[in-house]
Amino acid sequence: MKNLILCGFMGCGKSTIGRRLSKMTEMPFVDLDRYIEEKAGLTVKEIFEKYGENKFRELETEACRELSEKSGYIIAAGGGTLTFQKNIDILKETGRIIYINVSYEMLCERLKRDTRRPLLQVENRNEVIKELLKKRAPIYEGAASIHIDGNFTSNRVAEIILGVL
User: Fold this and answer.
1) pLDDT tens profile 110-126
2) Is the CB of residue 135 less than 8 Å from the CB of residue 35?
3) Is the dihedral of CA 137, 143, 146, 152 positive or negative?
4) By C-alpha distance, which of 76, 80, 78, 82 is closest to 19?
5) Shortest CA distance to 5 belongs to which of 156, 145, 149?
C-alpha cells in the first residue's frame, strides 16, 4: 500500500488531518517534523537556532528517505519539505502526495499566535505568510496528484480525502 503524504502551507492542518485519517483508516501516522525532532533530540526551533535552516533541511531529506522505505503510512510533510525537488522525488517513489489548500486569510488566522515555527517569529508575520505562500503554493500544486480544499474543519477535510481516495 502506498504512503499518503499530506502537503501544504504551515497551518493548513496536515498533522491534525493526518491523525484523523489515521484513526479512520488505521494506517499509522507520522508527522515529519516530530520525527526529525525525535531523531535529533531537539525541537525544530532549536535545530534552526543551533545549526541553521540548511542543517534542518538535511535532516528533513534524510527523514523523507527513511519514511519512503515504509509503506501504508500517512505522513504530514513540513511546510517547506516539498520546496525541494529531491524530497518530492523521494516521497513520490512510494507515496501519493495530497495538497491541502487553505486560503491566505484562514492561514493568517490559524497562525496568528504561533510560537513554534521559526520562519514566523517576526513582526510582519502576515507579510511573510503572503510571500511564502506565493512561492510555495505552485510547488505544492505541481507536486501533488490530489488537491483538496482545506478551508473546512479537519474532520470534514479528512472525509473529503477518503472520498477522493
Assistant:
1) 988 887 776 777 788 89
2) no
3) negative
4) 76
5) 145
Q: What is the pLDDT of residues 60-106, one digit of tens each?
A: 999 999 999 999 999 999 888 999 999 999 999 999 999 999 999 99
Query: How far, CA to CA in Å, does 80 sit from each of 8, 9, 61?
Result: 9, 8, 11
Q: Say how far apart CA 140 and CA 143 lie, in whole Å.
A: 5
Angle 136-138-141 from CA coordinates, rounded to 5° = 110
Residues facing residue 95 across a β-bridge: 3
pLDDT score for 71: 93
Q: Distances in Å between the alpha carbon of 120 and those of 11, 107, 112, 126, 152?
A: 11, 12, 9, 9, 23
What the block records as the C-alpha cell of 22 is 489515521
CA distance 150 to 53: 27
Query: Cα 151 from chain centroid?
Result: 16
Q: How far apart are CA 143 and CA 95, in angstroms?
A: 11
